[in-house]
Specification:
Blueprint (H helix, E strand, L loop, with lengths): L1 H21 L14 H7 L1 E6 L7 E3 L2 E3 L1 H12 L3 E6 L3 H9 L5 E7 L8 E3 L4 E3 L1 E6 L20 E5 L4 H12 L4 E5 L4 H10 L5 E4 H6 L7 E6 L4 E8 L3 H14 L3 H9 L4
Parallel strand pairs: 1-4, 1-5, 9-10
Antiparallel strand pairs: 2-3, 5-13, 6-13, 7-13, 8-11, 8-12
Amino acid sequence: MRKYVKYVMMGVIAVALSAIIFKPHTPSNTPNAIRNFEEIVNSGILRAITEYNSISYHAQGDTIGGLHYELLQAFAQSQGLQAEITPEMSVENRIKGIKEGTYDILANNVLISSDRKDSLLFTHPILLSRQILVQRKGEGVNDSTYINSLLELANRTIHVVKGSPSISRIQNLSNEIGDTIYIHEIEKYGQEQLLAMVANGDIEYAVCDENIAQALASNFPQLDLQTAISFTQFYSWGVNIENTILLDTLNAWLRTYKETPAFKQLMKKYSTN
């Protein structure tokens, strides 16, 4: 129960705490113009938005860590910029912030998908991951809640973060098995909180990014994380569809940086394999 409370409360207070301590960019109520790369450089500030979780961005005492946080800092430093990074739990708010020009870069595990290509430009892939079913481990052969096969998801309810790319995959899976899979979108919490809710028995099933789930596996030994609902997919960062020069600059940096010992050490540091 203590671990459950820890991760659910994290979704409520962690973003607020990091905002107080590190003072990320606060969006105004007026629309923002999309800043091109020259304007970003002239301002000296790179505005990024990410998700608060164990992989992307998280508090470690009085410091901040996370794969995407450290990558953003490395990119900003290479361009002579200061990174202002805002954590946001809502998928829809993160994308909205990029579309409206409040932020320059969407820097978390952004799935490269066709349904987002009308609003985002994707960088070269940064990570590989899968979407997995999160459920509690079975309690014997007669445990009717345990899913042994994806076919058994028929007429079950799966919880996902509102706006998650896993929604389209679950819908396709429903067509593949020829039966209904019900989807319940959760607006209030992120993926880590869904893991905690499954572990505590508040919900039966969730779908989460495998890297995020595996990062917390040792905290929730009662969870089964073995069932993939998608193939391995590419994850990248996103920028506004008008910001082609920023995209080219990011891609050029990524091509070089991914060959460095620093990048390999960073990937090892946050590896869940």
